[in-house]
Write a structure and sequence with these properties.
GO terms for molecular function: hydrolase activity, acting on carbon-nitrogen (but not peptide) bonds, in linear amides. The protein has a six-stranded mixed β-sheet, with helices on one face. A four-stranded mixed β-sheet has the order 1-2-3-4. Helix 1 packs parallel to helix 3. Strand 7 and strand 8 form a beta hairpin. The protein has a single domain, classed as 4-Layer Sandwich (Nitrilase/N-carbamoyl-D-aminoacid amidohydrolase), CATH 3.60.110. It contains seven helices and 14 strands.
Length: 275
């Protein structure tokens, strides 16, 4: 998707893609991070989104999951957070009966000065989550993550060791960092965990000249890219053979080989030498 700063047209576009995916035979449909609204300005975003009660995105996705009889992941939406002036960046998994099966609040905040000149301070807008989330799908355990989380491998290892066989990474990866790291990070997380990694992504140009990388990916447990959505909005389909999870983990059973070790002592910071 290429979400903008108005909720209604974003949900209209998402619904069209979800219906297209369902018609093509999809049992599990996923959308990117910030599906209902991608608004860079904190004040405008906070004014635009409600809490869970009456949130238009939740109502739309519950209706579609129920009507189409599918599992449906709302990659994430901003939502008013309880007891905090900041918002939550929250991912929702809907069951085929329209109920919310699981919620996950993004843990790692993207506070970065990107070399393309853009500055991001998610922690000023969003309250970080504190709980890793593992739930069940008909095809296995599902670990839920969001975007910048993908750079923190320990989260993915713990999800896999707790029972995840599929991990979701809905994202709005920047164009600059995506070109350098997106494919490599997602393949690494799949290989390390022996999981399928499903990463629906934002693409194109958004408000305030923000650009996202696109390339929604489906990665197999051995690291192969099964599907790449490219740089334009649309639907990407893939079939998951869950037997490949057991195969990958049998070939390299690294999830069973953790060992404790003593952490290194931090190096002393050296004074810069004179030229």
């Amino acid at each position: 998707m290429t979400s903008g700063r108005e909720i209604a047209p974003n949900l209209e576009a998402a619904e069209a893609y979800i219906r297209e995916a369902s018609k093509a035979g999809a049992d599990f449909v996923l959308t990117p991070e910030n599906t209902p609204i991608l608004e860079p300005r904190h004040d405008r975003l906070k004014a635009a989104v409600p809490g869970e009660d009456g949130h238009p995105a939740l109502e739309t996705f519950a209706r579609l999951a129920r009507e189409l009889d599918i599992w449906l992941l709302l990659g994430s939406t901003a939502v008013q957070a309880e007891g905090d002036e900041r918002l939550a960046n929250r991912s929702y998994l809907f069951a085929p009966d329209g109920s919310v099966k699981a919620r996950y609040d993004k843990i790692h905040m993207f506070d970065v000065n990107v070399p393309d000149g853009q500055t991001y301070r998610e922690s000023a807008t969003f309250r970080p989550g504190e709980q890793a989330v593992l739930t069940e799908l008909p095809w296995g355990g599902l670990g839920m993550t969001i975007c910048y989380d993908v750079r923190f491998a320990a989260l993915y290892r713990q999800l896999a060791q707790a029972g995840a066989s599929i991990i979701t990474v809905p994202a709005a990866f920047t164009q600059f960092t995506g070109q350098a790291h997106w494919h490599t990070l997602l393949r690494a997380r799949a290989i390390e965990t022996g999981c399928f990694v499903l990463a629906p992504a934002q693409c194109g140009e958004h408000a305030e000249e923000r650009r996202t990388y696109g390339h929604s990916l489906v990665v197999a447990p051995w690291g192969e890219v099964l599907a790449d959505g490219g740089e334009a909005p649309g639907v990407t389909l893939a079939e998951l053979d869950t037997a490949r999870i057991d195969d990958a983990r049998a070939w390299v059973p690294a999830l069973q080989h953790d060992r404790g070790f003593t952490a290194p002592q931090p190096l002393k910071q050296r004074e810069p030498e004179e030229a």
